[in-house]
Automatic annotation (TrEMBL):
Hydrolyzes 3-hydroxyisobutyryl-CoA (HIBYL-CoA), a saline catabolite. Has high activity toward isobutyryl-CoA. Could be an isobutyryl-CoA dehydrogenase that functions in valine catabolism. It comes from Phoenix dactylifera. It catalyses: 3-hydroxy-2-methylpropanoyl-CoA + H2O = 3-hydroxy-2-methylpropanoate + CoA + H(+). GO terms for molecular function: 3-hydroxyisobutyryl-CoA hydrolase activity. Its EC number is 3.1.2.4. PANTHER family: 3-HYDROXYISOBUTYRYL-COA HYDROLASE, MITOCHONDRIAL, 3-HYDROXYISOBUTYRYL-COA HYDROLASE-RELATED. Pathway: Amino-acid degradation; L-valine degradation. Pfam families: ECH_2. This is 3-hydroxyisobutyryl-CoA hydrolase. Residues 24-339 form the Enoyl-CoA hydratase/isomerase domain. The keyword Nuclease does not apply. GO terms for biological process: L-valine catabolic process. Keywords: Hydrolase.
Length: 349
């Protein structure tokens, strides 16, 4: 076993690489920050993926996170801080390289197995969902919480959310709802469900492969995976209601439809969805809805290019200042009381 590394400011390695035969295990290693993707982390992953693409000694990549998270997202707090210092181009460079990494993962010639053992959010989805195999567990928590931050689901999310069954992607992208492992498997965000206690055995089996044949990799994961039932309270069991409400043309109409259903007898997920929509940035909700709708008609490359341009508008504060206020309220001061830009509250796309 050998190691490769990229060091954080305090000297710890942000990406750990383990070599086992033809397999490389990439471990995200900022556990105190829940493995939030920093710029050095993104650049290191880019270099590794590019190098392994043409390396005949590498046939399989495994991605995982150290600590209690796979990856809780991109380090957007650092991006927001850089902009307050007058350097919006740092954020643009951050997103450009992150989205490039997402595209490389999506078009990679060698299979990637992402072990989503715990928290996977935002940018964490970008380095996993685009890969060939995504393994969820009973401890997995998935979310795209960007609308609460004054941003929108990026990292190619308008591509993969728009391709979930029915209008489930609109529900996930607008409300930031947290999905568990069985829900990820049911909607297709995960390809397999493996109990946490079997993950060590899965890793051991994968380190012994000598092929890039996805059918062989899939067969190995299948041996340890299982089908799991959804919880009775899962919103995915009411995909009919989700489609009825989230197929509406505007955010206002979606909220009105949910409130009408609530009057007919609110279930927990409907109440939570209404509360999340009312707490989120209004302009972010409208941008996110339009982005997902456009994503249905675009390829991943088109989605990433469009999302990058959208990010640049946000970074230059040409849309609103909700992103910076959201970062302050949720990630910095943590008072969870953002002052959203009311100017756009009633803007309808």
């Amino acid at each position: 076993m050998a190691s490769a590394q990229d060091t954080d400011s305090d000297g710890t390695d942000q990406v750990l690489v383990e070599e086992y035969g033809f397999t490389r295990i990439l471990a995200l290693n900022r556990p105190r920050q829940l493995n939030a993707l920093s710029f050095p982390m993104i650049m290191r992953l880019l270099k590794l993926f590019i190098a392994y693409e043409g390396d005949p000694k590498v046939k399989l990549l495994i991605m995982k996170g150290n600590g209690r998270a796979f990856c809780a997202g991109g380090d957007v707090a650092a991006v927001a801080h850089s902009i307050t210092e007058g350097h919006w181009t740092f954020g643009a460079n951050f997103f450009r390289n992150e989205f490039t990494l997402n595209y490389i993962i999506a078009t990679y010639s060698k299979p990637q197995v992402s072990i989503l053992a715990t928290i996977v959010m935002g940018g964490g989805a970008g380095v996993s969902i685009h890969g060939r195999f995504r393994v969820a567990t009973e401890k997995t928590v998935f979310a795209m919480p960007e609308t609460a931050l004054g941003l929108f689901p990026d990292i190619g999310a308008s591509y993969f959310l728009s391709r979930l069954p029915g209008f489930f992607g609109e529900y996930v992208g607008l409300t930031g709802v947290r999905l568990d492992g069985p829900e990820m498997l049911a909607c297709g965000l995960a390809t397999h469900f493996v109990p946490s206690m079997k993950l060590a055995s899965l890793e051991e089996a994968l380190t012994k492969v000598d092929t890039s044949d996805p059918n062989v990799i899939c067969a190995i994961i299948d041996q340890l995976s299982q089908q799991v039932p959804l919880k009775e309270s899962s919103a995915y069991k009411r995909l009919d209601l989700i489609d009825k409400c989230f197929s509406k043309r505007t955010v206002e109409e979606i909220l009105s439809a949910l409130e009408q259903e609530a009057e007919n007898g609110a279930t927990e997920w409907i109440t939570a969805a209404i509360q999340s929509l009312k707490k989120a940035s209004p302009i972010s909700l409208k941008i996110s809805l339009r982005s997902i709708r456009e994503g249905r008609l675009q390829g991943l490359d088109q989605c990433l290019i469009r999302e990058y341009r959208m990010c640049c508008h946000v970074l230059r504060k040409e849309v609103s200042k909700d992103f910076f206020e959201g970062c302050r309220a949720i990630l910095v001061d943590k008072d969870r009381n953002p002052k959203v830009d009311s100017l756009f509250k009633f803007l309808i796309f």
